[in-house]
Design goal:
This protein is an all-alpha fold. The protein contains four helices and no strands. It is about 75% helix and about 0% strand.
């Protein structure tokens, strides 16, 4: 099974799917129902993308033959930044 080498249209569809899924995950409908502002949704989507990038980097550290240490360090830094952003969004930092 080949993971890379797909069409550009499929790649664009994948990114739109991720953005939509993260928007739903971060509570896209809450501001619509309560007539509030959507700043929290945008912030939540960005936090989820930082965490996803960290998780992908950690995965790449496990599957790559080269630059494992760099991928691992970058992955844990991004996951830590994501966690700090979550606490900052909650106002507990």
């Amino acid at each position: 099974m080949q993971l890379g080498g797909g069409s550009k249209i499929l790649t664009v569809v994948k990114f739109f799917y991720l953005i939509f899924f993260f928007a739903l995950l971060s509570g896209m409908f809450y501001p619509v129902i309560t007539h509030g502002n959507s700043d929290g949704v945008i912030e939540g989507v960005l936090i989820l993308f930082v965490g996803l990038a960290g998780a992908v980097s950690i995965y790449k550290a496990g599957t790559s033959d080269r630059h494992q240490k760099g991928y691992l360090i970058a992955g844990f830094v991004m996951v830590s930044i994501s966690l700090l952003l979550v606490y900052a969004a909650l106002g507990k930092l």
